[in-house]
UniProtKB/TrEMBL annotation:
Superkingdom classification of source: Bacteria
The protein, known as: Electron transfer flavoprotein subunit beta
Summary of the function given for this chain in its UniProt record: The electron transfer flavoprotein serves as a specific electron acceptor for other dehydrogenases. It transfers the electrons to the main respiratory chain via ETF-ubiquinone oxidoreductase (ETF dehydrogenase).
InterPro entries registered for this protein in UniProt: ETF_a/b_N (IPR014730), ETF_b (IPR012255), ETF_beta_N (IPR033948), Rossmann-like_a/b/a_fold (IPR014729)
Length: 262
């Protein structure tokens, strides 16, 4: 069985992040890492295999992104994935969801997958739409936002937690699965895993390797356009209410009322 885990390389939220002049996210000039939510996807792919001891299951980590995006694949290999695929091509820069899902789907078709595992959202664009688009493109059922995954043979059952209820959903492989941050803590790569990852196979594909025309991707064919961005203003200091003459309570109530908290 082949499992493909989609792992996105995102700007590090704790470092400086910025936009390019055309309002696309700068992914080259900033520090990046494997999207934290995709660590859960890698973890669930590994657990899926561990629970099916003795079966021949290969896990491929796939990313679409610039040169540095290969780091996301490397982290997945260190965690335990068997091989990596990095799709990199200048024409992909600025791609929207539709183009991104096209490239991912073509790469998945090339590798072959019985199970595609994604995170619940990326930590940068947070669209939460790529898994659904992949399912449509690959002609597979989508079983999304899973917190618990069980499988036997070609049957997969997931639990999806909603605000007031939990759904149990069943599907037959091949499927596209996305997992939430409630699915279980992702493991840290061990020293052994880090060393082993250096020898694991890692393929690099261009658009032409996947049979994708460069005119189908990129900013110029995006279905929507980012027209403007504004940096969030720095936090201002809070207001301190002092109570030197017994008027503190009134001042506090006045402040809360002025903000419509009471
Ligand atoms: C007009 C427009 C312009 C844009 N320009 C840019 C741009 O210049 N540069 C840019 O990077 N983004 C750009 N984006 C955003 C880009 O389309 C999204 O980052 C991308 O489609 C993935 O969407 P998402 O991050 O919201 O994924 P989600 O739908 O939130 O992701 C869900 C899951 O899908 C998988 N996944 C998503 N993307 C990837 C990936 N690349 N590789 C592997 N797995 C993945 C992961 O498992 C992830 O957890 C643009 C969007 C629009 C609408």
């Amino acid at each position: 069985m082949n499992i493909v885990v989609c792992v996105k390389y995102v700007p590090d939220a704790t470092a400086d992040r910025k936009f390019e002049d055309d309002y696309t996210v700068d992914r080259v000039g900033v520090d990046g890492l494997l999207s934290e939510l995709d660590e859960y996807a890698v973890e669930q792919a590994l657990q899926f295999r561990e629970k099916r001891e003795g079966e021949d299951i290969e896990i491929t980590a796939l990313t679409v992104g610039p040169e540095k995006a290969v780091d996301a694949v490397r982290k997945a290999l260190q965690m335990g994935a068997d091989k990596g695929v990095h799709v990199v091509d200048d024409a992909i820069a600025g791609s929207d969801y539709i183009a991104t899902s096209l490239v991912l789907a073509k790469a998945i078709e090339k590798v072959g997958a019985d199970l595609v595992v994604c995170g619940m959202a990326s930590t940068d664009a947070s669209g939460s739409v790529v898994p659904a688009m992949l399912a449509e493109r690959l002609g597979m059922p989508q079983v999304t936002l899973a917190s618990v995954i069980e499988s036997q043979g070609d049957q997969v059952r997931i639990k999806r937690d909603n605000e007031g209820s939990t759904e149990v959903i069943g599907a037959t492989l091949p499927i596209v699965l996305s997992v939430t941050d409630q699915s279980g803590e992702a493991r840290y790569p061990s020293f052994k895993g880090i060393m082993a990852a250096k020898k694991k196979p890692l393929d690099t594909f261009s658009l032409s390797d996947l049979g994708v025309d460069a005119g189908q991707v990129g900013l110029s064919v995006a279905w929507s356009q980012v027209e403007d961005t504004t940096e969030r203003p720095p936090r201002t200091a809070g207001e301190i209410v002092t109570d030197e003459d017994g008027s503190g309570a009134d001042a506090l109530v006045g402040f809360l009322a002025s903000k419509k908290f009471i």
